[in-house]
Design a protein that fits this description.
single chain; 53 residues; mainly beta; Rubrerythrin, domain 2; four-stranded antiparallel beta sheet; 4 strands; 0% helix; globular
Length: 53
């Protein structure tokens, strides 16, 4: 039940992180503040799908 997700910066729209989450316990979109190397500061990162081929 764990799905791979990518975390995308909301300012520069780059995919910076890959993680997983439990679909049963976290049904809404995941959002967290993380460091973005392109922006060189902490910004909001939102969940996105990873294409499987």
């Amino acid at each position: 039940m764990r799905d791979l997700i990518k975390l995308t910066c909301q300012e520069c729209k780059r995919d910076n992180y890959v993680t997983d989450k439990n679909k049963r316990t976290q049904t809404e979109k995941f959002e967290i503040k993380k460091f973005c190397n392109a922006c060189r500061r902490h910004t909001a990162h939102k969940e996105g799908k990873i294409s499987k081929g």
